[in-house]
Specification:
rod-shaped; 73% helix; 8 helices; 9% strand; four-stranded mixed β-sheet; alpha+beta
């Protein structure tokens, strides 16, 4: 049975580790291990060392290690000599130590163990080769599947983390948007409150304006009535004065007696005495007294006329003052309203 140069080189390099009276370990490599296409010489170690439960150094015949494929397979070639004494009786101590070493290998190294007797691999090589191949393929497949599952898990976790980050970002954006909306609502409420205050103030100013206009109209009406009454009084006073003046001027052209009569009648008319009674009481002393009364009455009428003129002038100035104040107030209200509308538009 021929072997490749790679395997021959490996045997030459590790032959000092495979010392056996019958050279079974070297033969196992040549007839079994080198005939497995899935196994490369670089992945095989002879007399692989490990520690047992008592921290003692132990060794296993062969160890196949290929971390890239997840392969960890220990192979032990056994003969009866390992558990027999010199008289071919079973050495129970050696048998127990063999099992202890096997358990330590499985526990501490964490690998699969295949054990073959010398008779088995020598006379059933194909069975042994196929079993080792199957185990190598199984471990590779299991490892690949585990890697795929791990990759899927990593991808799932990565995808989950990405989606979680997206949700976190979305929540952050929603929170930021909510804060902006809250700020806008606050500003809106401020504007609404400001408009309500402005509306209330405008309504109050409109009420004041209406009251002022009503007061102005009432004052102007009363002033107009007063002027009419004053004009009527002036016309009556003027008519009375004209009558007296006419009588006095006419009396200058008549005789003294006629003058006295006329004067008496005129005086009687002014003081409310009938003409007959005025003529019956005619005397120079009475006439002088009547004349003085007439002069006094004329002076009083003149003084009353001056007072009435002053009062009329005073009312005229008062009405003019009220009109001016009303105009100024209306202008100020209009200015304030325009300014409020301008501020309101600026706020929006």
């Amino acid at each position: 049975m021929s072997i490749s140069s790679e395997w021959q080189e490996w045997i030459n390099k590790n032959s000092q580790l495979m010392i056996h009276p019958a050279n079974y370990e070297v033969l196992f490599v040549e007839k079994i291990l080198s005939q497995i296409p899935e196994l490369k010489a670089c992945h095989l170690q002879a007399q692989f060392p490990f520690k047992d439960q008592d921290n003692r150094s132990r060794r296993i015949d062969f160890m196949v290690l290929d971390e890239s494929k997840g392969i960890r397979l220990a192979i032990e070639v056994d003969g009866l000599s390992k558990i027999q004494s010199h008289n071919n009786a079973i050495d129970y101590y050696s048998f127990g130590d063999l099992l202890k070493r096997q358990n330590a290998l499985l526990k501490n190294v964490g690998c699969m163990l295949l054990r073959y007797s010398n008779q088995q691999w020598r006379y059933q090589p194909n069975f042994v080769i196929n079993e080792i191949r199957n185990e190598l393929l199984k471990q590779e497949i299991d490892y690949s599947k585990a890697m795929e599952d791990k990759i899927k898990e990593i991808n799932y976790r990565t995808d989950l983390e990405l989606r979680l980050n997206e949700k976190i970002l979305e929540i952050s954006q929603l929170k930021e948007h909510k804060e902006k909306v809250d700020d806008i609502l606050k500003e809106k409420n401020k504007i609404i409150n400001f408009n309500l205050k402005l509306k209330t103030k405008l309504e109050e100013q409109q009420k004041i304006t209406l009251i002022t206009q009503s007061l102005r109209e009432k004052t102007l009406h009363e002033l107009d009535l007063f002027r009419k009454g004053l004009n009527d009084a002036e016309r009556k006073q003027f008519s009375s004065n004209r009558k007296v003046i006419t009588l006095v001027e006419g009396s200058k052209k008549l005789s003294e007696t006629e003058k006295d009569k006329i004067t008496s009648v005129a005086l009687g008319e002014l003081i409310g005495i009938k003409p007959n009674e005025a003529l019956g009481t005619l005397s120079e002393e009475k006439n002088n007294e009547f004349k003085n009364n007439i002069i006094k009455l004329l002076d009083e009428n003149k003084e009353k006329s001056q007072k009435q003129n002053k009062i009329s002038l005073l009312f005229s100035f008062s009405a003019l003052f009220i009109v001016i104040i009303s105009a100024i107030y209306l202008y100020d209200n209009k200015t304030i309203e325009n300014k409020i509308n301008h501020d309101n538009n600026s706020v929006f």
